Every structure is written in C-alpha cells, then in structure tokens.
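The aim of this short unit is practical: by the end, you should be able to scan a pair of folded records and say something sensible about each. We start with the first protein, listed as its amino acid sequence and then its structure tokens.
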Amino acid sequence: MFATNAYAMAGGAGQQSGGSGMEGIIMLVVMFAIFYFLLIRPQQKRAKQHKELVNSLKAGDQVVTAGGIHGKVVAVQDALVTLEIASNVRVKISRSSIVGTKSDQLAE
C-alpha cells in the first residue's frame, strides 16, 4: 500500500517539473554572480588597498597595527617596520600587521 502511494507521488512530481536542467544551471550562475559581487570582489579590493598601503610606508608615517598599537614609523626594511610607540621605545613588527594610517582612521 505505501509503495504504491510513494510511486504515484514520485510520478506526479516528475511530470510537474517537466523541462530540462536549464533552470538549475541558470540558478547556479546567478548564485555565483551574487557571491562574486557581494563577497569575493570586495575582499579582493580590500586586499589590494592593504598591499598598496604596506608598500607605500615611509619613515614619519603615523600608523595603527592589527593589535591596536599606534606609533610612528622610524625605519622600513623588507619585511619589518620599526615603530616608535613612545619616546625612546621602539618595536619591530612585520609590515603585514599594519592595518592603516592615522589619517585613514580619522577619516572614518
């Protein structure tokens, strides 16, 4: 009894959908486009801006690190930046840990 009802229900559902798998493909393309414009593209833009910021660092810039330390750039090396966070207190950090300049922070 149950097998007959299930078979009848499956046959009815198959007849209703009709058409090819084109709707499924179109939905996948639409979903990918939504993910691209809402997630992937903005992330790539932020990464590009951060790379430009890190590459443009020079002595005298006021910066903020990922840990929230505010300081002035004293020296710039290949992968390291020396920050002066207080008078005669200098720390070396990696370039990638700098998230912004003080002028960027004030503008937001």
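Turning to the second protein, read its sequence before its tokens, just as you did above.
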Amino acid sequence: MQGWFSILIMIALGAAFAAIAIGLSSLLGPRKPTPEKLAPYECGMPPVGNARDRQSVRFYLVAMIFLLFDIEVAFLYPWAMALRDLGWSGFVQMVLFLCLLLAGYVYVWRKGALDWGSDGSRR
C-alpha cells in the first residue's frame, strides 16, 4: 500500500487544486456581464457568421495531407542522426523514401487537392 499512498496524495492534491481554482474564479470573476464581455473572442477579429456552419471538405483534405507529409518528413531527423551507422544501404533507402514522398506530393498537387479556389476547378 505504500506505493499507492503517493498516488492517492497526488490525486487528492489535484482535486484540491481544481476545487480551489473553481472557487476562486467564482469569487473573483466578473459580476456584471455585458454583451462585449459575453461575445466570443476570435483572434482579435469580430466573429462572422454562425459557428455551426459547414466547413468545406477541402479544408479537411488539406489538413490531412499536411499531417501526412509532415509526419513523413519527421522521419528525416532520426535518419540524419543515424546516417553514419546505416551506411550506403540506409542512404539508398532514404533516397527511395524521398522519391516516393515526392511522387505522392506531385500526385496530390496534380489532382488539385492543394488548390484553395472556391470553384474547385483546376488551372
């Protein structure tokens, strides 16, 4: 039970901190809300339109493509750190990986998935 006692103390401290923070915010928080105080803050710009409007599928497609290529490029750092140990075979494998990555990027680009135009037509 001695190992669990420290975990229980941490849980109790976390719960106490949360309770104190909520209590202080209710005591010290604003009392007279105005329309300006209740308005959502969006990067210093006044909000336009409804927050529940549908987003274009292109937004999500570009986000997924960015994540895909960003994660693949993240493999370059460990490869660069281990290049001396990998030798020529590791170098050739990484060149092939980069060629596949470039081919995927060109494919996505040619398909027009990276175009931000509202009409959806390719140039």
